[in-house]
Amino acid sequence: MDSSQLESKLLESFPQAQIQARDLTGGGDHWQVDIAAVEFEGKTLVDQHQMVYRALGELMKKDIHALALNTMVLSPDQIRQQSRESEKAPADPTRDPNWREVLKSNLHGNTEEEEK
Q1: What DSSP string runs through the chain?
Q2: Into how many domains does the chain fold?
């Protein structure tokens, strides 16, 4: 399995999500996945991760040995912005060299808000 196959599988359940999958070992069975999705709204971190596991289904039983997840809520404003930017930019948001940093920043900000 490669990153595009994993990302495509997740997009089936999270069609508007921003997803970046990285093979950690080169063997196709240890993955780091960063995913921002509207479907995570109002869900706990555990619920978000369970949603990802369910979306991956059989892949979790046979193809994926290890999965490190970073999840965050994708707001309607972010979707609108993504839609406007997609008209100007390549369809793959991970081609933006700053995408990972933005996701990390949003994840960190989301974590602080959950602690309040």
Answers
A1: --HHHHHHHHHHH-TT-EEEEEESSSSSSEEEEEEEEGGGTT--HHHHHHHHHHHHTTHHHHT-SEEEEEEEEPPHHHHHHHHHHHHHS-S-GGGSTTHHHHHHHHHHHHHHHHH-
A2: 1
